[in-house]
Amino acid sequence: MRHSRKDSAGDMPVSIPPKTKVQVHTSDDDIETGAFPVVRRKPPKSLNANATRVRIITSVLVALMCALLGFGYAVQVHNNRSSYETLSEEELVRLLDETSTQVDKLEERKSQLNQQLTSIKSAADKQKEAARVAQQNEQNSGILSGRLPAQGRGVTITISETSDRIDASTMFNLIEELRNAGAEVISFGDVRVVTSTYFLDTKSGLQCDGRKMAAPYTIKAIGDPDALQNAIQIAGGVGSRIKVQYHASISVEQSDSVKIDQVRRGQDYQYAKTVE
Q: What Gene3D superfamilies has UniProt attached to this entry (predicted)?
């Protein structure tokens, strides 16, 4: 569209060309259509991809844990095997003898129980026979539990300590060696040794069941004297370790009459009750 205006000089109309719109294109515009650029959305991450990644990580962790467990088991088996491989022939024979002794004791106890059952069944007065068997078992139980004194064949062990103090674990191992060798009754100093007996290292010295012990230590054990002495004095046994590691002296004396007067008071049970 053209516009006109009059010139002041001659009032002649002057033509003014129309304004022209200049369209500026950017690199993102569509020049052909004049449309605005389309912003493309990024495709969403697939849930399946995330699940796959989680499964892979879980599988790797499980495989790693299995490998660690397998390695630990292999090391444990190797250590157990090595511990037996390093034992001398005498030590292996001693272990075999101790195992045989325990088996014999269990078989003997089984035979005693069978005999008691047979005697009760065949007795004319079954109630009287059952009372007699119960009294006999009560005596045996009293000796084993430490409530009654005992005497019999066995050994007396004396340990003289030097400046190197013998620790609690070594003393506990010595008691266990006597038990494995068939000791039926044991005393450590003035303490009657039972299943709950423990040893403890303190600043003031060795304690047994809360009582302070001082060298020389005296241990009495009732059982087969030869087996008990062999358990202490065998090469590589606990007696040898006490001599070498702690520079202590240890002596074992056999006797046909070892008397153990130390007794334990019966435990008062707060929760456990007999089955009626």
A: Protein of unknown function DUF881
